[in-house]
Amino acid sequence: MKGTEFLKAVDLVEKEKGIDREIIFGAMEQALAAAYKKNFNAKTNVKVLINRETGDIKVYSYLMVVDDEKEEKILEGEEELDEMEEELDPDTIISLTEARKIDKSLNVGDTIDTEVTPKDFGRVATSTAKQVLIQKIREAERNSILDDFGDKQDELLIGTVELEDTDNYFINLGRTNGILPKKECIPGEKIEMGKQIKVYVSKVDNNGKSLLVLLSRTHYNFVKRLFELEIPELSDGSILIYSVARDAGNRSKVAVYSENPNIDPIGACIGEKGSRIARIINELHGEKIDVVRYDKDPSTFIANALSPAKNLTVLITDEKKQEAIVVADDDNFSLAIGKKGMNARLASRLTHYKIDIKTFEQAQEAGINLKKSAE
């Protein structure tokens, strides 16, 4: 490969892959040094330099300048070399005294370089270094992608549905594909090839052979990110989300509050005529959403979290263990528990309290005496 051809190849890789050209030159020099050592039975003291302007490749054998005492110890095999010096051996060093006979300006740590480029090195090096160079470029590209996606965990992204297999959808996110397991799709939703889709990044893993971006549409934080996308007051901090609990495909509960008494956090989330919440529900394919008001008082918060049930009496039985008993009248008992216990389960996740819901009669049997509200 001629120098000009190599430079054109570098320019192409830099442009198409977005990899810094200096990374490419460094990888190429490392690969060529390995090729030279392998094909020409060279010692370890070899380096390859590529001219950044012309693309010319030159191989140098070098001697490391060491002080006279160190040279003597190395020659006698007495010197314990540190990690930086582990490649030094009697054939790769020269004493300071001998070095200054060649060049008086040399000091310990400098090198004396001698060009040893073989005539047919271009052919041998190109064939040998090809796979190594490809590997280095892949590593650099992977690191570049990681720079783009390493901080995207827990974020909402928009991608295009590109491929499908038995267990997963593969979502094109731009420079890489994310994996959306089918079990992480909202129950009943239809994912169409070529369509754009919103996804939550549940994990970014760089420990395997390739970057793994795991996606979800069932994660409770997917609902949180949709709220932040649709409701400007959440972005500017005038409304805050305390917690989210979700049973994907059925119901979500979102606890919100504002430190500004003049702002209605629930009204802002629902929007005029329900416009804001409708867009979120549409993205969740009809999943019901309860927007409830967070309160610092756990009794009030638990009562709010059990919406749509009303007229509830909440008793905090153990604040440290976060346990509570809720007493509901006959009209609200079933509402508080919900279908298959879903409402109570979500309220418990939302408030982080273990909630035991009882009727008045059950409460009395447990020794809790409460007066029924006037009918």
Work out the helix count. 13
Give the class from helix and strand content and strand pairing.
Answer: alpha+beta
What is the average of the pLDDT values? 87
Shape: elongated
Strand order of the largest sheet: 7-6-5-8-9
Q: Which fold name is given in CATH as the topology of the largest domain?
A: N Utilization Substance Protein A, Chain:P, domain 4
By CATH, the architecture of the largest domain is named: 2-Layer Sandwich
Low-confidence stretches: 81-86
The helicity comes to 25-40%
Reported for the largest beta sheet, the result is:
5 strands, antiparallel
Beta-strand percentage? 25-35%
CATH class of the largest domain: Alpha Beta
**CA radius of gyration:** 34 Å
Number of strands: 15
How many domains is the backbone divided into? Answer: 4
State the order of secondary-structure elements, H for helix, E for strand: HHEEHEHEHEEEEEHHEEHHEHEEHHEH
CATH superfamily of the largest domain: NusA, N-terminal domain
Describe this structure in words.
The termini are far apart. The longest helix has 29 residues, at about 120-150. The protein has a 5-stranded antiparallel sheet with strand order 7-6-5-8-9, covered by helices on one side. Strands 1, 2, 3 and 4 form a 4-stranded mixed sheet that branches. The chain is built from 13 helices and 15 strands. The protein has 4 domains: about 5-150, 2-Layer Sandwich (N Utilization Substance Protein A, Chain:P, domain 4); about 150-215, OB fold (Dihydrolipoamide Acetyltransferase, E2P), CATH 2.40.50; about 220-295, K homology (KH) domain (GMP Synthetase, Chain A, domain 3); about 300-375, 2-Layer Sandwich (GMP Synthetase, Chain A, domain 3). It has helices at about 5-15, 20-40, 70-75, 95-100, 120-150, 220-230, 230-235, 265-270, 275-285, 300-305, 330-335, 340-350, 360-365, and strands at about 45-50, 55-65, 95, 110-115, 155-165, 170, 175-180, 195-205, 210-215, 240-245, 250-255, 290-295, 315-320, 325-330, 355-360. Mean pLDDT is about 85; it is low at about 80-85. About 40% of the residues lie in helices and about 25% in strands.
